[in-house]
Design goal:
Order of helices and strands: HEEEHHHEHEHEHEHEEEHHHEEHEEEH
Strand order of the largest sheet: 4-10-9-8-7-5-6
Number of strands: 15
Pfam family, one: Aminotran_3
CATH class of the largest domain: Alpha Beta
Bound molecules: pyridoxal-5'-phosphate
Largest sheet: 7 strands, mixed
GO molecular function, one term: alanine-glyoxylate transaminase activity
GO cellular component, one term: mitochondrion
Distance between the termini: 8 Å
Strand content: 5-15%
Keywords: Aminotransferase, Mitochondrion, Pyridoxal phosphate, Transferase, Transit peptide
InterPro entries: Aminotrans_3 (IPR005814), Aminotrans_3_PPA_site (IPR049704), PyrdxlP-dep_Trfase (IPR015424), PyrdxlP-dep_Trfase_major (IPR015421), PyrdxlP-dep_Trfase_small (IPR015422)
Length: 483
């Protein structure tokens, strides 16, 4: 095996990438034969002068309490530039996880940095008991992105807070209490949202978030009925819950449009439409949690719910809304939002001028750089390549998703669909060693979650697919050309 000993790219000033690439040209049968290099970039990472990685790890272990991390030896990230991250030794990584679907338009995107910096020089904080132009203009610009009467926004700081408020609104507005959520869903880590979530791995053994009933997950890949019957079958389960486990009146139904933490799970077409009707017939509101799927990521549409032909009563968002700045929002109709004013309701930082200036800049960049269409193009390319990989390698049970929200589910056996948990962990580690960071998810941790900053390119994806194939070959004992 001949390692390239100079640089990761021909022009970029990076070093220490030698371990990730090879010049051996045994590539004919590979799906993506050429891209052994990450694309060149015009960026020079400043030299890192801080404490060593070992010191940071020790500080974290001593003073953070339990915070889990990826990889046997965690990666330390010191800088970011668009779709790339850099570690303390100036290794460049292709970031296909985007800080857990949060860096939407690119790490340290110059327009976002400019907007934040300029607002910080003017005014960092007031609270919304005073008027300030940023929050009001932002509310208008954000709600302009929504259909129908969804014209009222309330700003918070995270996805959990957004979902807390949405559920509060549903209960206060309808006067009902019972909520339906989905098994395998994730809606946050606050007490209430932990109760809404549907994975045992994210719940403590405590009373939490009362009033949630969890419907069967309409997961197309793992459906217990044929795909063409799945929408009816899983919608019927929601009706069964309404009839069998509630007083027949609902506060609401909360759902992701593609499950994120749950492993990029897609629902059968028509399912949400049927469920929305049932929920509304029983007095409830429909809440779309767009914390991961919003802001153009799904490619064909700005919001995930639009891909399913439904219009929710309440939409929650966070993560990509601020490109990494803590920000969240609830958008609903003015009538529903009015429910909150029946008591004093307040959020100290929500809609803070800096957060609002950054949120406005994110909206502008998505439009100016055409990132929604770009997500569709790059995502289509990626899925096509991954589908070819799936045809070659049995370990890939499913490739799914929309735009730049893609999942790859690894299984031990295509018939039984037994999750390939340890193999997924190995591949995850191997990809990191090849300079690619991906997310992991699903109840069994056997799904790769590909949700990069939306500025990622086809060339980046070629690099990823090439190295994923090499890693699969290495794992399964086939000949490899890298590492
Ligand atoms: C779909 C969804 N909703 C809500 C949340 C909670 O967001 P936060 O961690 O900002 O509270 C998450 C976080 O991963 C999420 O994926």
């Amino acid at each position: 095996m001949n390692f390239v000993t100079s640089q990761c790219t021909r022009r970029s000033p990076l070093r220490a990438c030698a371990r990730w690439v090879s010049t051996t040209a045994e590539v004919d049968e590979l799906v993506t034969p050429h891209p052994r290099y990450l694309p060149d970039i015009e960026y020079t990472q400043p030299k890192y002068r801080g404490p060593s990685k070992e010191e940071i790890l020790s500080l974290r272990q001593t003073h953070h309490g339990h915070v889990f991390h990826y990889y046997r030896m965690p990666v330390m990230i010191t800088d970011g530039h668009m779709q790339y991250l850099f570690d303390e030794e100036r290794r460049r990584y292709l970031d296909l996880f985007g800080g857990i679907v949060t860096v939407s338009v690119g790490h340290c995107h110059p327009e976002i940095v400019k907007a934040g910096e300029s607002q910080m020089r003017k005014l960092m904080h007031t609270t919304h008991v005073y008027l300030n132009p940023e929050m009001a203009l932002y509310a208008k610009e954000l709600t302009d992105k929504f259909p129908g009467h969804l014209k009222s926004a309330f700003f918070v700081n995270s996805g959990s807070e957004a979902n807390e408020l949405a559920i509060l609104l549903a209960r206060v507005y309808t006067g009902n209490y019972d909520m339906i959520a989905l098994r395998n869903s994730y809606h946050g880590a606050s007490y209430l949202t932990m109760g809404a979530g549907g994975m045992h791995t994210w719940k403590y053994n405590l009373p939490m978030g009362f009033g949630f009933h969890h419907a069967a997950n309409p997961n197309i890949y793992r459906s217990v009925v044929p795909k063409r019957e799945a929408a009816d079958f899983y919608a019927a389960d929601v009706m069964d819950i309404i009839k069998g486990a509630t007083p027949g009146r609902l506060a609401g139904y909360i759902h992701e449009t593609i499950q994120g933490v749950g492993g990029a799970v897609m629902y059968p077409d028509g399912y949400l439409k049927m469920v929305y009707e049932m929920v509304r017939e029983h007095g409830g509101l429909c809440i779309a949690d767009e914390v991961q799927t919003g802001f153009g990521r799904t490619g064909t549409h700005y919001w995930g719910f639009e891909t399913q032909g439904v219009t929710p009563d309440i939409v929650t968002m966070a993560k990509g809304i601020g490109n990494g700045f803590p920000l969240g929002a609830v958008v609903t109709t003015p009538e529903i939002m009015e429910a909150v004013s029946r008591k004093l309701f307040f959020n100290t930082f929500g809609g803070n001028p800096v957060a609002s200036a950054i949120g406005r800049a994110v909206l502008r960049v998505i439009d100016d750089e055409n990132l929604q269409a770009h997500s569709a193009n790059v995502g289509t390319f990626l899925k096509t390549q991954l589908t070819k990989l799936k045809e070659k390698y049995e370990i890939i049970g499913d490739v799914r998703g929309r735009g730049l929200m893609v999942g790859i589910e690894f299984v031990k056996d295509r018939e039984t669909k037994e999750p390939a948990k340890t193999e997924t962990m190995e591949l995850h580690e191997m990809l990191k060693n090849r300079g690619v960071l991906v997310g992991k998810g699903g109840l069994y941790g056997n799904v790769f979650r590909i949700k990069p900053p939306m500025c990622v390119t086809v060339e980046d994806m070629e690099y990823f697919v090439y190295h994923l194939e090499q890693a699969i070959r290495q794992l399964t004992g086939l000949s490899v050309t890298g590492l």
